[in-house]
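Fig. S4 source data, part A: sequence.
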Amino acid sequence: MSATNSTSRTCGAWTALLLALLAFTTTVSAFSPIQPSTTIGRPTTRLSATPPPKPYDPSYSAKPPTFNKSTQLWEPSAQTEPMPYGPFGSFLRGGPAPFVLRTLKPDDYDQAVFKYMATTSCSRAEAQGNMDAFFNNAADWAYQKGEEARGRPQVDYTELKPQQAVLVVTWALFVTPLLVRSAYLIATGPHGWALTLDDIFTF
């Protein structure tokens, strides 16, 4: 009887772990890695959508940032507005990838934002929203821009969607720690791969 219960608990743990991993790989909350750059520490921000993206708000008319050839950096114009939201806002909109980039390399993130503003003549808020989406999942972002170029409705990346924010926070506070603990127990615990739900939730 005890052997049956142990087998049942083991199967339950494996089922929970596999479902969590499946959700982890398919969620839209952006746990995609930041694409590595081949240039001097700058993130890869090549806008692969063709033609170049159009601004969501065409009424925006402030002077865009300019590229300084001597420093090889994008510089905001006198009309460039202040940063609309900080790293936590990027986390809620795009998940961990843009949050980590903004935390560890804020200058690189700003360069990507200024470049997008100059390319599309959009606001800083719109540029940040697009770069958060880009660093979250560049392929999906480029596909969306391609669809917009074909006449599909544009996505407002500046909008903070409550459902998306709840999903990101849930993954950050509950699902990710569960996966980390499971991996730790498998690697260091006495049961190895015979991990049970009791093992996971017993602290």
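Fig. S4 source data, part B ends here. Residues 162-188 form the longest helix (27 residues).
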